[in-house]
Design a protein that fits this description.
alpha/beta; 12 strands; 11% strand
């Protein structure tokens, strides 16, 4: 068994009380001069790190976040977890009736993760979107939206309190990852971010400072933070929602780097554990959606900003990706670009299974380079091993 793997494991903070698709064969293009290989999380061969004990499906599973409908995890998901073929689960409002019910569902998932047939001995990544204000999947903290925090009398204190509250709320029911904070720098009143109060400010320095406060406070409470949506959706109009439709943001590269990416420098300095990459297209950086672009995932985020943590996609079933075929094809394109975790949030476990099947096929055939694939798995397992049970 791989007990947190033979990797360096970070300090584990105590928890606050309270149908298969074929692998793609198309290559995601990148701009000239940008990297086309992922950074390595380890220079050791797979056998030396413990990955040699994992099957192709188990390796693929370490890169997939599942979702499911209703209040009870389905048998197919529990079976995938018990065989080491899932990295974690995302929860939505339809999965939550009460704190007690959610805690019970978490216990079911954790019991499957502890199965003797699972070679990976590390906590599942159990996550939700608890941004504050309108976008909360669970009752309770954080109560204020990012916009309310930015407009408050003491924004720094309120951002810290929001991070502390999110950690206590999620940790109290057994969740260990929050898909927050949003670091988008909104441009106009009632635009995509502002109409749901999901941005701290139109000032990138303010977004950077408040986002870093939230991140530090939440992660001090044992819940990993996720900065999103890199390189930024702040320029999106009210109807430009990648969940529903393709979005192209025609911004100069200097604006993307000087405004939209600025908060990520502070987030990385604050130690953010995950970064979510958007599905918008930024033509001055790449021709593909950001989460399918090596130029953005590896060039902008990894090399230019120096992020070494875990990358996670936005929803793999998003309307922005209709032109990119099946869930399996999308999973392979995103993985090839350098995305570590693939978020299957369509609320049916079969979506996650399709992604795992496609990734396993790509790994076995060589369509997904094994060294880069193993590096992604190691980053995910390092994150899992560092979180409290």
């Amino acid at each position: 068994m791989i007990a947190g793997l033979t990797l360096p494991v970070r300090h584990r903070p105590s928890r606050p009380q309270a149908g298969g698709q074929p692998a793609a064969t198309s290559q995601a293009p990148s701009r000239s001069g940008q990297p086309t290989t992922q950074p390595s999380a380890s220079t050791q061969p797979a056998a030396a790190t413990g990955l040699g004990r994992l099957s192709a499906r188990q390796l693929a599973g370490q890169r997939v976040i599942y979702s499911y409908p209703g209040l009870t995890p389905p048998a197919s998901l529990l079976a995938a977890i018990s065989h080491g073929e899932a990295a974690g689960v995302i929860f939505f409002g339809q999965n939550i009736a009460s704190e007690a019910q959610l805690a019970g569902a978490v216990r079911q998932l954790e019991a499957a993760d502890a199965s003797p047939s699972n070679p990976v001995r590390a906590p599942l990544l159990l996550m939700t979107d608890q941004e504050g204000g309108i976008v909360n999947r669970m009752p309770g903290a954080p109560e204020l939206s990012e916009k309310q925090i930015g407009e408050s009398a003491d924004p720094a204190a309120q951002a810290t309190a929001a991070g502390q509250g999110a950690a206590a709320n999620l940790g109290g029911v057994g969740l260990n990852v929050n898909l927050a904070p949003v670091l988008d720098v909104y441009r106009h009143p009632n635009d995509f971010d502002d109409h749901l109060q999901r941005s701290y400010s139109m000032n990138p320095a303010v977004v950077a400072s408040l986002g870093a406060n939230f991140i530090r406070a939440q992660q001090a409470g044992g819940v990993a933070a996720t900065a999103k949506h890199f390189p930024g959706l702040g320029a999106a109009g009210a109807n430009q929602d990648t969940d529903n439709t393709p979005v192209t943001l025609n911004l100069p590269a200097s604006t993307i780097r000087g405004v939209d990416e600025l908060p990520y420098k502070a987030a990385i300095a604050a130690g953010v554990r995950l970064v979510m990459v958007s599905w918008a297209v930024y033509p001055q950086l790449a021709s593909m959606p950001a989460g399918m672009s090596p130029a953005i995932v590896q060039g902008e985020l990894r090399q230019r900003l120096g992020f070494t943590g875990v990358t996670i996609t936005d929803a793999l079933e998003a309307g922005a990706l209709r032109a990119y075929g099946s869930i399996g094809n999308r999973a392979v394109l995103a993985a090839r670009a350098g995305m570590d975790l693939l978020l299957c949030s369509g609320k049916y476990a079969g979506e996650g299974t399709a992604a795992v099947t496609a990734l396993a096929s790509g790994y076995s055939s060589g369509a997904l380079p094994r060294a880069a694939f193993d590096s992604s798995v190691l980053r995910v397992l390092s994150l899992r091993g560092s979180l409290p049970r």
